[in-house]
Design goal:
CATH class: Alpha Beta
CATH topology: Glycerol-3-phosphate (1)-acyltransferase
Number of domains: 1
Number of strands: 7
Strand order of the largest sheet: 1-7-6-2-5-3-4
Helix content: 25-40%
CATH architecture: 3-Layer(aba) Sandwich
Radius of gyration: 16 Å
CATH superfamily: Glycerol-3-phosphate (1)-acyltransferase
Largest sheet: 7 strands, mixed
Number of helices: 6
Structural class: alpha/beta
C-alpha cells in the first residue's frame, strides 16, 4: 500500500488509499453486498448521494465504490488522530455552523478535477429515507456539472445483536445499491435560488424512487 499523502488537500491518491482501507475494514467486519456498481460513470465528475442511517455509511461506500471517493464530513468527526488521517485520505472537513466556503471550494475542486464526491444530502444521520434534503447537493451538481448517482445503504440496525448504537451487528449483511446517474439541473446552468430549489425537488424524487426500488430489490 502506498504511503499516505502529507498535504491535507483532496487528492485522488489519498482517496484511493482510503478506499483500500475501507475495503479491508468493511469486508472484515460486515458482509457487504454491492449492486449496480457498473452504473457508476468510469471517468469524469460524479456525485454519490448517499442515504444516512448508520455511522458506517461513509466508510462502507468509500470501500465498495468503484472509484476513489471524497466525502463531505462534519468537522466534529475530525478529532484527535482522525483529523490528519481523514484529511490525508482525501476527505473534506465541513463546518456546519455556517457557510464553509473553504469546504465548498475543495468540493468543487474535486469535481473540476473529474473526481467523485460523496454527500449525505440529508445532512445528518437519521431515518435514511431522503425525506429532508439540503440545497447543497443541487448546488454542487449544477456548479460542478456532475451527474448524481443515488446510493442506498441498507443495513440491519433494527435487528437484535447490535453492540454499538448506530452500527449494524457485526458480520451482518449490508446492502449497497448504486442507481442510475441523472442530471440535477434543467440544462440552463442557472444557480439562482429558484433554480436550485427546483433542482432539489427533482433530486428528492429521484433519490426517493431509487431507495424504494433498492428496498424492493434487496427485500429490506
Amino acid at each position: 500500500m502506498s504511503e499516505l499523502p502529507s498535504k491535507g488537500v483532496p487528492s485522488e491518491r489519498g482517496a484511493e488509499v482510503g478506499r483500500r482501507i475501507g475495503v479491508g475494514l468493511m469486508y472484515g467486519l460486515w458482509k457487504p453486498r454491492v449492486l449496480g456498481a457498473w452504473k457508476v460513470p468510469v471517468t469524469g465528475p460524479v456525485i454519490f448521494a448517499v442515504n444516512h442511517s448508520h455511522n458506517i455509511d461513509g466508510p462502507m461506500v468509500m470501500g465498495v465504490a468503484p472509484r476513489p471517493t471524497h466525502f463531505l464530513i462534519k468537522k466534529e468527526a475530525f478529532v484527535g488522530p482522525l483529523d490528519p488521517f481523514l484529511t490525508a485520505i482525501g476527505q473534506v472537513k465541513v463546518d456546519r455552523t455556517g457557510t464553509d466556503r473553504g469546504a465548498i471550494t475543495r468540493a468543487i475542486d474535486v469535481l473540476t478535477a473529474g473526481g467523485a464526491l460523496g454527500i449525505f444530502p440529508e445532512g445528518t444521520r437519521g431515518e435514511g429515507d431522503f425525506a429532508a434534503l439540503r440545497a447543497g447537493l443541487a448546488y454542487f451538481a449544477v456548479r460542478g456539472n456532475a451527474p448524481i448517482v443515488p446510493v442506498a445503504v441498507l443495513g440491519s440496525s433494527d435487528r437484535p445483536g447490535r453492540l454499538i448504537k448506530g452500527l449494524p451487528p457485526l458480520r451482518s449483511r449490508v446492502d449497497v445499491v448504486f442507481g442510475d446517474p441523472f442530471e440535477a439541473g434543467d440544462g440552463s446552468g442557472r444557480r439562482t435560488r429558484k433554480a436550485l430549489d427546483e433542482a432539489t425537488e427533482r433530486i428528492q424524487k429521484q433519490l426517493t424512487a431509487h431507495l424504494e426500488n433498492a428496498r424492493r430489490l434487496t427485500g429490506r
